[in-house]
Specification:
elongated, 17% strand, 2 helices, 2 strands, two-stranded antiparallel sheet, 84 residues
Length: 84
């Protein structure tokens, strides 16, 4: 049972992190899942988050008097420590 919970929590976190900013996909972690991660799985999260491959992002924008384009390439997380 615990393995299924951990897998569900990791999948939920992964989807939440990789979702596009303007998408309609949202994730929510309830209190019991948060407590479970805090007590039992935080070391796994600490190891796995730096391994996440973040996609290249290019967005055009127009705000106020100007327009532009923002591109982010090669973004990575070098260190991560879950809250205690």
């Amino acid at each position: 049972m615990t393995d299924h919970r951990l897998l569900l929590v990791l999948l939920t976190l992964g989807v939440g992190i990789l979702a596009n900013p303007g998408s309609s996909l949202k994730t929510r972690i309830n209190l019991s899942a948060f407590k479970f991660i805090s007590e039992h799985a935080h070391h796994v999260i600490n190891l796995e988050v730096p391994r996440i491959t973040l996609p290249n992002i290019t967005r055009e924008f127009s705000a106020g008097y100007g327009t532009g384009k923002v591109s982010v390439h090669g973004l990575n997380i070098t260190e991560f420590q879950s809250p205690k």
